[in-house]
User: What shape does this take?
Amino acid sequence: MRIGTARSSYRHDEALFDSRTQYAWLAILGVALLGFPFVADEYWLYLACLVAINIASATGLNILTGYTGLVSLGQAAFMGIGAYTVAAFEQKFGTPVLLNLLAGGFVAMLGGLVVGLPSLRVKGLYLAISTIAASVVLHFVFANWHSVTGGHSGITVAPAEILGISFDTSFRLYWLFVPITIMMVIGAANLFRTRIGRAFIAIRDRDISAEVLGIPLLRYKLLSFGLSSFYAGVAGGMWAYFFRVVTPESFPLLMSIFFLAAIIVGGMGTILGAILGAIFMTMVPEALKLIVGWLPLSTDATLILSPVRTIVFGALIVGFLVFEPLGLQEIWRRIRRFFHLWPFRA
Amino acid sequence: MARDTPLLVSALALAINAQHELAARKRQSAGGDKVHPGKVNPILEVEGLTLSFGGIKALSDVGFEVAPGSITTVIGPNGAGKTSLFNTISGFYKPSTGRIRFEGEDITATRPPARAKLGLARSFQNIALFRGMTVLDNIKLGRHTHLRTNVLDALFYFGRARREEMELRQEVEERIIDFLEIDHIRHMPVSVLSYGLQKRVEMARALAMRPKILMLDEPVAGMNREETEDMARFILDVRDEWGVTVLMVEHDMGMVMDLSDHVVVLNFGKLIADGTPAEVQANPEVIKAYLGSGDVSELRERLHQTVAVGG
Assistant: This one.
């Protein structure tokens, strides 16, 4: 039941979180995030770092595809740009970690601006195809620009180091990645409280009337591409520090599809959707692996079950699309609504 | 007009008339009389506008003026080129010849977003609201060109972004939402609203643009009588209280004749009449365009009867 949340100022009404209950839950989430590394083992910390990276990238793609309506299959390639930039900076200049991550973001942003140029004329599936083309070109560059990318063998990245502390374990990287991801998610949420975010949604919903309302389409579509690939670049940079080796095969087209699937399953055009989608897409294969591991089966049966796992994962995605087209975030909202109204209305 | 039952039209006109008289009285008490087009510098001038799609001329040599503070209506049978004219004025179509001047400045080659910034706002015939946003966000979006928030402000929601959003919220609430009586729906997504309310939200969004001229494409099409009355009242109030010039396309003749200071008639892309409502009603070309050729004097008499009952 939710009562006593009457708002008395516009600021209060426009806040991201507006009730005491929400603040209480946020506090619990904060404590959980702080406490998690001390109770989790190496495997779960590894997953947590991966989830943080994927949330950052999925949030970026959500700005472009979920909010601005421009379908992109280039997110992994932009992550690649970020990862290579970070690797090259780390290897050649040894600059500070946070600066490298920012540089990764900005270089990826430049890539995104170039790839975004056709978006004024090309829409929908055609734009998706042109972003695939861009990612193929980028893959070629990664594989053949030997002096910077090290060709097919790639670059090995030294562990991130801040103030003499070497971030060489998942436990330490957790303290680097989670705050960065939280900042990026809050940034995206803020974006959609202002005129920039509204302009993006306007372009998605009806680009012609957006133009009459004074929104220059090309500029805002490029801005969306730029922001989205900045997010991808920073996520790619974190990826480089996490896996510590960057090769052209690290960022396949399949990974772009992974992110697109994440925001669709999570719920396009909502901040929570990208978060839930990224968690789902990262964790469910692992959860299925665990479940198969628990089953009392012989080694042969486990071998047979591993493709079954993939099929179950695929079926889950299809199931969500059919039964909840608005994604996981809608399920979340429905649960919230239930408790807001409970016990007055079931 | 030909298809409308005269009874319905007159009933409509009567209802609107009451509102109109009220507004007229208000205007007189404010010291202003009906605005006569042509006496002051026009806010919008259209001159020799020709627009063709392939071999078809949607508009040929159309020219008229809109006086500041007036309500000017473009009428004409279906397919006469009214919406094409609107789209050319708001910048979607590029005319092959002719000029559009706004406050004396040539805007023929200006892109639509820049026209919006100058103070040209419009609504669409088939409602063009952003379905993924709430009513409030749709209205706020109208202010886009007048805000300064950049990406960095937005990401951190700090300083300018926060200040601008709060000022905007307050103004939208106090001036627009109260004025158009849509406070009960402000947090609803626009897709769940009735047609009449959607039209009103679209008008709210246009008002948030700080328009100097408000272009309404069929503001009361498809509305029931009550909604039509409300909209007519809002249009008059926008002109009287906000000082915004109104240019509209409308088929509801009762409303056109009651509200307008100046009527422009198009037929087959050509301007066939241009003047006060009374002048236009008396114009044989107009009667022919609406009712088809035939015995003009008899038809004119029928039209006058209808209007006489109505207002």
Q: What stands out?
A: Chain B has twelve helices and ten strands. The first helix of chain B runs from residue 6 to 29. Confidence is low (pLDDT under 50) at residues 1-5, 7-15, 24-38 of chain B.
